[in-house]
Amino acid sequence: MKKVIAGGIFILAVMAIGLYLGNSNNGKIGADTWPGTVSLSASVATQLTCAFSGETAVAFGTLVSGTPKSSAGTTLACSTNAANGYTLGLDDAGPTAADSALKNTTADVYIPDYSGTLAIPTAWTGTGLGVTMTSATTNYLAKWSDGANYMGIPSTTTTAHTVNAPAVSDASSWKFQIDVPGNQKAGTYSGTVNFTINTVL
Amino acid sequence: MKKTKLLLWLAAAVLIAMPLFVGAQQKGVQISPLSYEFTIAKGAAQTATLTVKNLNTSDLNYVAEAQNFAEISDDGAPVFDESTTDTSGAKLAGWINFGAAAKGTIKAGESKEIIFTITVPENASAGGHYAGVFAKEVKSLNSDLTEVGVASRIGALLLVTVPGDVVKSASINELKTPGFITKGPANFSVVVKNTGTVHYDSDVSLEIKPMIGKSTTISMGSHTILPSGTRSYTASWNKNYPIGYYSVKAIATDPDGNEMTKTSTFWALPIMIVVPAVVLIIILIIILSLIGKKKEQELENTPSSSQPPSQQ
Prior knowledge:
The complex is a heterodimer of chains A (201) and B (312).
Chain A: H1 2-23, E1 48-54, E2 57-59, E3 69-70, E4 74-80, E5 86-91, E6 99-104, E7 110-112, E8 122-123, E9 128-136, E10 149-152, E11 158-163, E12 167-179, E13 189-199
Antiparallel strand pairs in A: 1-4, 3-12, 4-12, 5-11, 5-13, 6-7, 6-13, 8-10, 9-10, 9-12
Chain B: H1 2-25, E1 29-32, E2 35-39, E3 45-54, E4 60-72, E5 78-80, E6 96-97, E7 103-106, E8 111-119, E9 127-137, E10 147-162, E11 170-176, E12 180-181, E13 186-194, E14 200-210, E15 216-225, E16 230-237, E17 244-253, E18 259-268, H2 271-301
Parallel strand pairs in B: 2-10, 12-18
Antiparallel strand pairs in B: 1-3, 3-8, 4-5, 4-7, 4-9, 6-8, 9-10, 11-13, 13-16, 14-15, 14-17, 17-18
């Protein structure tokens, strides 16, 4: 019986010494003393990647007043490791708020913006160049009514979609629609809509 | 044997398709870093680098540009100024020089370092100055077609502090509690206002304390607040059936890292617990009163033991 007790005490003593030695090195048991141990460290930079798919140049063909034409759709997919996510703004760089991106290639004349706004997009009625969001991976807003409500594109970068978390291939899909007023100058029109993407503070 | 062959073919197909699949994902434009924060003295300059990678299979023509912003939306999106070219020299975008990197081409699959210099003028106002720095895709459109092009304009945010007579102050403008709830979760919101002249990151948390028992702390996160701007912080306390009177303390850091506080209260009476408890109490009262009545009746019906035995 005495031998069993002595053996038990011995084992406990060995365990206590082991624990003491482990803790005395800030928990890094033998890290500084064992040969062949290498400390590794790295820092990962924040990054944002965005890619378009679908139509990136929308050719509307010949426009006839009263017959609206739509694009097939453009999707922007973004990935970021930023903790606060990313935001997407649109602008058409039109010279005035009423002008769309589409400028006559031979004269200083623009096709107007559609009358719906980012705050209150509306079901298509009237003329101009408009855009709607048809779907989004996250934060799709009901105001777009599944792509039935359109807005004119602002002339200044205006936030249209924000994701407040890191994202992987987070997609938003957009569709353009156009109709011209009866007095729109005949000719060819072209221009660019900018999708401004940056991080969220 | 046939099965093994089939599996080998499948594995080979997956291995061949994998790079194609990965390649399909790796498209577009990538930038890094996403924000810069500098303190630059009047008359001094600071150089920074924005790395832009063209992941597409075609070359990318770009122009570098800067655009001011002075406020951010409640969800943190910068509200950019109208003009992309600031010539007044009073705002940050006008202090940025892209030099040779102002425009160029990034070959397919390659990266380019857009090096830009911020030179703060001597007459710059002390405090915070903000702008976005972008690589804007230059789209070449067919002039014979009526078409609208879609271009990416991807960039980083630049937060510059010009030292001097800077005011650092903030306040908690609002702490919203549910007031009265019958079940969880309880939703809270806090609004912090930067009343100073330079941006800062405010860390906000909530301390929920019942009348009896341990208090709970919920982190509401950290957000950058620009001068004169406010930020909303929201959080939910995911307790299914809170019960009783609670005091709530919002704790937010000010620009010097000190704590600011605002307190409020709310009541929680969960129907799921209160109604059955009240019903149970009523049933208990009824049962006890019935037992009491029955005992009374039994006592009334029992002949009194103190009555003297009848004499025969």
